[in-house]
Amino acid sequence: MGNMFIWSKLTGSHKTIWIRTGSLITVLVFLCLPQIAAGGSLVWEMVDLTRGFEGCDPQGQADSCTYITYRFPAIMEGPNNMIVEALRSDVRRFLYDQGNYTDKDFYGIRDRLFRDFELFRNEFPDSALAWFIEKEVGVIHLTDRVVTLAKRSDTYFGGAHPVELRYFTSFDLGTGEPIRIQDLLLQGAIPRVITHAEEKFRKMKGLEPGAPYGESFFFPDGRFRLSDNMALTPNGLLFYYNVYQIEPYAMGPTELFIPYSELRGMTVSTGPLGYLSD
Questions:
Q1: If we measure between CA atoms, which residue out of 177, 159, 102, 178 comes closest to residue 135?
Q2: Where do the domains of the chain lie, and which CATH numbers do they carry?
Q3: Which of 46, 121, 157, 160 is least surrounded by Cβ atoms within 10 Å, i.e. has the fewest?
C-alpha cells in the first residue's frame, strides 16, 4: 500500500479535508469549486470550458463525441503581483502553448481541433474514432511559502492510444519563482538524495543494486536521473516521469516520492523546507 496523503483547503468559513491512500496520482483532486480562498493568501476561481463537435455531449456520448475540455484556476488575488503573474503565465503556457494544438485562447484551439477532425472524418467516413483534448490545472499544495500547481493533459487524435501527461510546478509565494531542487537542499546533500532516490527507484522497479538499466530504461548513458518534473506536496517531494520519458508507453508513468522526514538535516535553512534543517 502506498503512502497516505492528507491536505486541506479553506473556502469561506468551511474547511474541506481529503484523505486518500494509494499512489499519489490517485490523490490529485482537481478542484471544481466556484471560488476558493486558501489561507487568505491566494484566491482563484475555477473555470470549466467544454465544447463538443456539432454540439455533441461528452458526458452522454463519451465514445463517439469529439470534444475539448479545459478546467483551470483563474488567479484573482495573491500576496504580491509577482506570484499572481507567475501563476497566470504558467497556466496560460500549459493551456495554450503546449501540445499538438496551440493558439491564443480556448476557442482558437477548439476551432482548429474541430476543423482537423472534420477533414479526418471526410477522408475516412467509416471511422468511428472520436478525438478529444482534456486539460486540467489544479492547486494541490499551498502554504505560507509555497504553492504547487498540477497540470494534466489527456489527448487522442486517432492514433494507437490516448496520451496522458502530467506536469508539476511549485512556486515561491514571496518571489514568484519556480522552486528548484537546489533551492530546497544543501549543495552537498543533493548527491545523497539522488542516491537515496535511486535506491527507491530500483526497489520499485525490481532492480538489484548496481544492475545495469539496459534497454528497458531510457536514462542517458544508463545513469539514473531525477526528473525535473518535481513537486512539493503536503508530505514530501514528488518526482514524476511521464510515459515515454524513461520507459516504453506500456509501462506507464513513474511516481517517485520522498517523504520530508527522509530529508531532515539536508535542507537549506532559509528555503521552503528550512524547518527540516535542524
A1: 102
A2: 4-172 (3.30.565.40), 181-276 (3.90.640.20)
A3: 160
